[in-house]
Specification:
It is a single chain. The chain has 268 residues and is an alpha/beta fold. Helix content is 28%, strand content 37%. The chain is built from nine helices and 15 strands. Strands 1, 2, 3, 4, 5, 11, 12, 13, 14 and 15 form a ten-stranded mixed sheet that branches. A hairpin with a 2-residue loop joins strand 13 (216-224) and strand 14. The longest helix has 10 residues, at 32-41. The mean pLDDT is 96.
Length: 268
Amino acid sequence: MKVAIQGEAGSFSHEAAKRMLPGWGIVSCARSAEVFDRLERGSVNAAVIPIENSLAGSVAEHFDLLLARNVSIQREYRLRIVHNLIAAPGVKMGEIRRVYSHPVALDQCRDFFRRYSKIEATPFYDTAGSVKHVLESGLRDAAGIAGRYAASVYKGRILMAGIEDDKRNFTRFFLIRKGRRVVPGANKTSIAFRVKNVPGALFKALSVFALRDISLSKIESRPMRGRPWEYVFYADLLCGDNKVARNALRHLAESASPVKVLGVYLAA
C-alpha cells in the first residue's frame, strides 16, 4: 500500500503519514497537484496533506484541490511541529552563517534569528529538503530547519532543538482517498458551498446548522478561480453522516449552489 505526500522524505508530511498509516510505502511528490493526480490515477492508495497550521493558517492550494478533485477526506491528524537546527556531523554552532528552510518555518523561528543576528535566513522549497541540500552539498557553514525525522533520514546532527517561537504549534493533516467514502464512527464533516452576493445570503446558509444545533468549528472563504470577486466558503461541521446532518445539507442546497461534501471523517 502506498501513500503520496508533497515534499521530501523526512518532512512533517512524511512524519504525519507514517503515524497515520504505519508500514505503508511513502511516495514523495514535488507538487501538491501531483499528489492528487497520483491518487486519482490509482498509482497510490491514499494521500496525506497538510490543511492548516495553528499559527500560519490554512493551506489555500489544498482547499482548492479538494474542491476540484474527486477525492474525499477520511481522517484528520494533528502533529506537533518542533523545529530543529540541523547541520552536518562535526559542524559547530559558531560555524553557521546561513540557515535554509521553508519560509513558514523561518517565520516561526524569529526569536532564533534575533538571537543569532549574523546568521542569514534563506528561504528554501521544503523543510526536509533544506536538510537534504545541506548534507548532500557538504555545506559546513550552513544548516537547515526541519523536524527531528529529517535529521534521522539524512544523517544530520541537531545543533539546537525546539527553536520555534511558539510551543503550541500544530499542523492539521488530512488523510484522503479517491471517491466518496464514509468510515465507521465518522464524527466530523467538511463542506464547500457558494452563496449569491445578496443581503442575508450567508446568514441564511449558516442558519440551517444553527436551527439543528450543529456546531461549526471552522469557516473561511476562498476566491473562485475564473470568477473574480466570487467566493467559496469552507466549513467544518462537528457531526457525522446522520439524518440531522443530511437534512441540514439539503436545506443548505436551497440557498447555496454548489454544495460539495469534502469528507465525512474521524476527527483528531
